[in-house]
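Hi Prof. W.,

I finally got the Glycerol kinase prediction working! I wasn't sure whether to trim anything, so I left the full sequence exactly as given:
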Amino acid sequence: MPDKLSTSALAKQRGLVAKQLFEQLALAGYINRYQEQWVLTELGTKFGGEYVQHPKFGQFIVWPSNLLIDETSANNHLSATQLGERFKLSAKKINQLLSELGWITRSDQGWQLTDAGAAVAGKQKTDSGSNQQFVLWHASLVKNKRLRQSVTEFLGQDAKLQATDKSISSFRHKFEAKHRTLDGHYVRTIGELRIDNWLYMNGIVHAYARQLPIEEDVVCDFYLPGGKVYLQYWGETPEMQNEARRQSLRELYQRHGFEMIEVSEEEIDKLDELLPHRLRPYGIKAY
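And this is what came out:
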């Protein structure tokens, strides 16, 4: 018996019709129906689901033959208001945090789900009365590592612990953040300093060394929440000059549906010429 089976093969093994198993997996939050396709969620990945590419059938999801389906939060979706109640925050603040994480985006029609939001089992809905769009969230999101981290950081919980001299020293040593930018960030390289200063001088809101909103512990160079796009600088450090490492990061961003702008070390003197053009497709204007 193969280590992993397609959903249809797993259903057959369990004496189910494929549709029944798809429904069970969706209710448990392991997969999510988005844009007419089944999307593997972060929770589904935790339980061993993964994508495979078949030359004839294309991409599909496979599962361990002994897959455990946790039904504790099955068929239970939460609105922003209900999610906020779990964290003692208003629906407005929850939506702002979800937007900062890149899981939803604001439009004239309301809140719209993103590819990354679909991967944490969000569901796009439309109010029948107002025709405004909103998103419902699988109850498992309450336990999501990155959402909980964002709430903690927003509320300043454990702020004293995080602000100890020891923790600051450890962080700066680990990331070699020794160059101070105009807006007070400490960055690792001169190239990052020049990018940070360029963003600041052009009035572009940005975060530095922001944790990606995924289970893996991966930190970006810059995150621009206004366009839901990450900016990656390739240069000056041996790790970032390693092509295998670069490709690995590109694949990670692509796998999670994150948009990424790249700047090489050779381009650092051309930021005024290059960045406005690269940022424009994401709705970010710079002059």
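Residues 77-150 form one domain. Does that look reasonable to you?

Thanks,
D.
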